Amino acid sequence: MSDLTVSRHFVQAALVGAENLGFDTRELLIEAGISPELLRIEMARVSSDQFSRLMQILWNRLDDEFMGMGPRRARSGTFATMCALVIDCPTLEAVYRQAYQFSRLFDPMVSMELVTNGDQAQLVTRIEGDILDPCYFLRESLLVIWHRLGSWLIGQPVELAKAEFDYPRPPHGDEYRHIFHCPLTFESSQTALTFDKRFLSAPVIRDKPEMRQFLKTSPADLLSRPDESNTFTGRIRALIGRDFSKPLPDFEWIAAEMHTSPQTLRRRLKQENTSFQEIKDLLRRDMAIYYLSRQELPINDIATKVGFTEPSTFHRAFKKWTGVTPGAYREGERGTLVG
């Protein structure tokens, strides 16, 4: 079971190109197991599995890994070919240089260029030509895929010092906190990710069989399922677990388990743009959404499962998270939402 969810915004943003090309987006959603009615709920979220399926359907149906948003098509298999090239690179620096050279073979170019300056390294977005990207989805995907691919290849997260964007903070800007886990700057002169140069010398630890396995669900999984095992947020989620029916561990216990002081852990969470309370709330929300998709579970049982002693408190909390009651949310999931 995947307990991560993806905002409705990203589902709709991913469909912009397909819609523009005349595809029946309702049909694509149903094929991915997403109820189109659910998307009428403004704060709805889908599971990372559903989002991953939608991405794969879009790439295959459009035969375009830019999903109809780029300055040209990137036929299916482009990303896999780039990965086959970089798997033989010795270090992360070589990976990013090789990937950029590969992307330059296509005209107009859509890529990220590695730029080093002192003890800092940057991946800077390079997009030539006109794009159809009103929701910034193509640009966000580019940053996320290149960053997470690099992290996967070296077997450790490339910790970001800064993420900057050459556009104003979008309405869904709050989601960026959980995507990039670092300070954010909008209306910058470039769209780029900054990190410590020491990561560039990290060796590539993956081999070809691992890459073949990785490509079966990639890059869809890179977008929908971040590897959070090495972020403080992800490690805390893992320590809390999924059983909310018994008392949750307190912050001091979590800090001790992670061999750090509560003060240091608080500071690290602040750097990752979150807090212990928010991690617990979002985990509860994601678990509640997961259980609501299992139609046989009574709503009062779900309230207990996610740690609420009173069903009324659960209803209030769920409405705060999603804008609707658990019952209305379930109707949307079923596709029987009226109004």
UniProtKB/TrEMBL annotation:
<dbReference type="InterPro" id="IPR018060">
    <property type="entry name" value="HTH_AraC"/>
</dbReference>
<dbReference type="Pfam" id="PF12625">
    <property type="entry name" value="Arabinose_bd"/>
</dbReference>
<keyword id="KW-0804">Transcription</keyword>
<dbReference type="GO" id="GO:0000976">
    <property type="term" value="F:transcription cis-regulatory region binding"/>
</dbReference>
<dbReference type="GO" id="GO:0003700">
    <property type="term" value="F:DNA-binding transcription factor activity"/>
</dbReference>
<keyword id="KW-0805">Transcription regulation</keyword>
<feature type="domain" description="HTH araC/xylS-type">
    <location>
        <begin position="234"/>
        <end position="332"/>
    </location>
</feature>
<keyword id="KW-0238">DNA-binding</keyword>
<dbReference type="InterPro" id="IPR009057">
    <property type="entry name" value="Homeodomain-like_sf"/>
</dbReference>
<dbReference type="Pfam" id="PF12833">
    <property type="entry name" value="HTH_18"/>
</dbReference>
<protein>
    <submittedName>
        <fullName>Transcriptional regulator, AraC family</fullName>
    </submittedName>
</protein>
<dbReference type="GO" id="GO:0005829">
    <property type="term" value="C:cytosol"/>
</dbReference>
<dbReference type="InterPro" id="IPR020449">
    <property type="entry name" value="Tscrpt_reg_AraC-type_HTH"/>
</dbReference>
<dbReference type="InterPro" id="IPR032687">
    <property type="entry name" value="AraC-type_N"/>
</dbReference>
